[in-house]
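S.,

As promised, the xanthosine-5'-monophosphate run. Input:
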Amino acid sequence: MANDRRPDDMVRITTPELADAFIEEQIAALQEQIKDKKVLLALSGGVDSSVVAAMLIKAIGQQLVCVHVNHGLLRKGEPEQVIEVFQNQMKANLIYVDATDRFLDKLAGVDDPETKRKIIGGEFIEVFAEEARKLDGIEFLAQGTIWPDILESEAGIKAHHNAGGLPEDMTFELVEPVKILFKDEVRIVGERLGLPANMVYRQPFPGPGLGVRCPGAITRDRLEAVRESDAILREEFAKNGLEGKVWQYFTVVPDFKSTGVKDGKRTFDWPCIIRAINTTDVMEVTVEHLSDELIDHLVSRITKEVPGINRVLFDYTPKPPATVEYE
Ligand code: XMP
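Predicted complex:
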C-alpha cells in the first residue's frame, strides 16, 4: 500500500490546513483499499484508536464495526464518553462489551504484577476475538499504529502490533491510517475530525489501566477508591489550569491500612498516593511541585469524598530511581 513508510521529506503536520489535506488523502486511500468490505476496530477511547475510528467513520461509515471492551479498569467516565462520542454523536456501529466481572474475577487474588498484566492482556484478546467471531464478513482489522511504534519495533524496543496475539485462524488485512504520523500530528488530525479536545489531548494511560494503580491483588472496593480519587485529581488539575500542562498525574491506593479518626471514631483505612510528573521521553521524569493550597484542597476532598481513604500521601520521587507507575 502507498504511505507504508513516512516519506523522508514529509512536512510535519502542524496546521489545520495540513491536517485537512492528510485526512482527505487518507480517506481516498481507505475507500480504495476497503471498497465495500467490513473493518473491525478495537476502540479503547485512547487517542490513537479514537482518531482511527473517526477517520474510518468518515471514509466508510457503517462498514466499520468498533468494539469497546470495558475491562473494569478504565477511568471514571471513560466508557460513557466512548459511547457518547462514537455511538451518539458520530453514529458509529459500536459494540460495547462490559467485561468488568470477567476481568475482575480472573484477577481476584493475583498479586504478581507481571501475572496481572498477562491476565489483562490475554483476557482482552479473548473478549475481542469472541466478539469478532460473532460477526460475518469482516476482512480488515484497523489499528492505531503510529510512526514511533514502527520505529521502536524496528529498533527492537517493543512489538508494535496491538492485535498481536489474536488466534491464528483469525487473519485480517491490516488498515493503519495514522501509521506515518507522530503523536502530535495524530492529535491535530483528531481535532480536525471533530473529536473532543479532552479525548485528543489526554494524558497517557497504560493498557492495564487502573490495575497497575491498585498494587497487589485487586479488590473492587480498593479499585473504586483509585477510580474516585483519580477523578477528583483530574477535576482539580483541570480547575487549576494544570490539565495539558502536567504530562501525567494519577492516584495509587496501596494495599495497606493505617489508623485514623473521623467523626470522633477510629478508622482503619488505606492511604491514597498522588503522583504528578513531567517528562519528554519517559526515560527520565521530574516531579510537578504543587502549591500548598492545592495540596490542602486535594487532601481535604479525597479524605472526605472517597470511601476507604483516611490519609493522602504525595510521591515526590523522580525517575530514576522510581518508575512512573507502581508496578
Ligand atoms: P514507567 O512506569 O515504565 O512508565 O516509568 C512510563 C510510561 O509508560 C506508561 N506505562 C504503560 N503503558 N502499558 C502501557 O500501555 C503498560 O503496561 C505500561 N506501564 C507503564 C506509564 O503510564 C508512563 O506513561
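The first helix runs from residue 16 to 34. Residues 117, 204, 206-208, 248, 282, 319, 323-325 surround xanthosine-5'-monophosphate (CB under 6 Å).

- D.
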